[in-house]
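C-alpha cells as discussed.
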C-alpha cells in the first residue's frame, strides 16, 4: 500500500489473515481444530480430544495440547498481516486432558516491538480448568504479507 492509501480496519485485516491461513493449515484441520475468534494480536481456537490423541496413560498427548496452543499463537501473531513465525516457546502442562474434553486455547499479546513479540496462550478444558500455559516468542519477517494488501481495498 502506498503511504496515502487508507489502512484496512484492523479487525477486518485479522479476519482476512485468518481465512488465508486456515485455507492452507492442514495440521490444525487434521486435528479437528476450529478458529472461534480472531483479532489484532489475539485468537481463540478449540479442539476436542479424540481417541487417536490419547497416549499410553489414556490421556491426551502433551504434544497435541502444545500443537493447539502453537496454532492459536500463529493465528494471533500473524493477525497484523505480516508473516510471523515462532522463534521459541515454553509450555507447562498442568492438568491432564481426557477423551471427549473440549480444549480452548486463547492467545493474548503481551508485547510486540519491532520484529519480535511475546504471546501468552491459556489452554482450558470445558470445565474451565487450566490444562496448559504456553508462552510464545515470535519473529516478524518484514515486507512479507499473509494477504496481498491490494486485495484489502
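Sequence:
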Amino acid at each position: 500500500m502506498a503511504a496515502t492509501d487508507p489502512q484496512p480496519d484492523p479487525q477486518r485485516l485479522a479476519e482476512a489473515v485468518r481465512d488465508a491461513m486456515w485455507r492452507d493449515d492442514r495440521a490444525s484441520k487434521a486435528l479437528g481444530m476450529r478458529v472461534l475468534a480472531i483479532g489484532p494480536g489475539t485468537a481463540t481456537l478449540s479442539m476436542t480430544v479424540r481417541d487417536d490423541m490419547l497416549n499410553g496413560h489414556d490421556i491426551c498427548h502433551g504434544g497435541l495440547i502444545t500443537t493447539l496452543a502453537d496454532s492459536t499463537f500463529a493465528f494471533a501473531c500473524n493477525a497484523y498481516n505480516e508473516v510471523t513465525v515462532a522463534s521459541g516457546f515454553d509450555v507447562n502442562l498442568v492438568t491432564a486432558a481426557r477423551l471427549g474434553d473440549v480444549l480452548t486455547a486463547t492467545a493474548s499479546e503481551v508485547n510486540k516491538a519491532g520484529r519480535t513479540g511475546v504471546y501468552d496462550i491459556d489452554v482450558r478444558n470445558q470445565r474451565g480448568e487450566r490444562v496448559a500455559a504456553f508462552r510464545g516468542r515470535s519473529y516478524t519477517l518484514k515486507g512479507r504479507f499473509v494477504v496481498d494488501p491490494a486485495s484489502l481495498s
